[in-house]
Amino acid sequence: KYLQLSNFKTMNEDIQFIIDSTKEAMENAIKHLEKQLQNIRAGKASPAMLGSVMVDYYGSKTPLSQVANVNTPDGRTITVQPWEKNMLQEIERGIMLANLGFNPMNNGDTIIINVPALTEERRKDLAKQAKAEAEHAKVGVRSARKDANNDIKKADDVSDDLKKNAEIDVQQMTDTYVKTIDDTFSAKEKEIMTV
Predict the structure, then answer these.
(1) H-type alpha helices, 40-80
(2) 105-106 and 54-57 as β-strands: parallel, antiparallel, unpaired?
């Protein structure tokens, strides 16, 4: 009798491991989505817009954030204050090479970027881009669900009732994460479309 109980415990641990792994995979899909959405520009200026800019710092490619302070004094302007004045040209070049559509102005002290207002067409394109990222995240969540259900079916020494309950748990998790993705996308879409 004691032996059966210990088997029951490990069997539950197998299912719990599958559930935990699935949750982690789904959370990673959400984190990836949030990171991707940060790179999609909404109407307001934001330091994240220059996140991809690399600067030649004494011969090595370095992220802009490691050689300068990037600020947004208002919703239409980004200022870049280098920690070393001799980096102004390199930073300006890095911004141009990043091909972000910005026209940096160097006043000898700081670099000022005026962020142009987005056209209606550009807003729609960005919203489509955000939607594609959301769909990509949903694919990740559904893929995690499929893997979990396959693992549950293959689990040895697990009662059919326990397998059914685990599959229900996985589906509820999937529904929760898909709703989170939809909510995250809706918020980003609103941010993009707000003039």
Answers:
(1) none
(2) unpaired
